[in-house]
Structure prediction request, 310 residues.
Amino acid sequence: MTLGETKKLRLSPNFSLHEFCYHPVADYHDWYNIPNVRGMVLLRTLCRKVLQPIRDHYGRPVRIVKGFTCPRLGHHLGDAPNSSHLTCLGVDFKVSGISPYSVAKWVAENLEYDVMLFEFDDYSPINRDAPWIHISYSLDNNRKLDLTTETGLRRFRLSDNFTLWELVRSVTATSLKIFNIPNEAGIEKLRQVAVNILQPVRDYFGRPVRINSGYRSPKLNASVRRASKTSQHMRCEAVDYEIMGMDNYELAQWVAQNLTYDQLIIEYYGRDKSDPNDGWVHTSYTAARKNRMCNLTINDKGTRPGLLND
Prediction:
């Protein structure tokens, strides 16, 4: 099937296959971005269950921002390896002339879906009224995880003991009204951090792990004093944490001896020797390349290699 022929194949009364297959990047590189027959069936289900009801309710055009992505295109765009765009069960869209916040509210109250969230062209938009909606659908169990709300963020589990809410919440972001929820690919990266760093710590010590800082959008990161301009927090690959009542230097030592990580930093430890929770532990993890196993100490003396307790 050619891209031109996809215009003739209708998935529902108001949606054609072409809307889900065409992408300017794929067109520029001449990448074949048309799903197989099963993928077309899944896209038809997505239209019938989600997009067509939205189109019928509002009586306005629904613009597909991103539909199906082949592995090559998905990799180029930075999609998660398990992205719902790859499986033909995810779509990004806008409804012409209707606030995405209103659309999300209607969807949450009236339709079945798996995950719904807002996404932007970047993570620090000036105009918060211009996101698109990303929505995924499951053939087996639609969880109705509305990540446009705190309730949905609290329900979304990254691992047995950690929720998405713990990795995105920020008092600073709330006070400054900064949007601080990553896209689908970012959420998968946070899941990797939870599974490979936080959950092993929680399992070994058997005590709650307090998250001080997880994901930070570029705008939020810029508002944090002393934050690195290249912080892995912005890439959803880092977390600052501690265990209440436990010495943070000992915690960092355990992580260094038992886990795989990219960077491990003991930060601002040693100011108050009587306080076991003095400072905090920063750990990053990446699935994009080999983790460096780099150890650093950051405090008033500057940044130094190794884990130091002074």
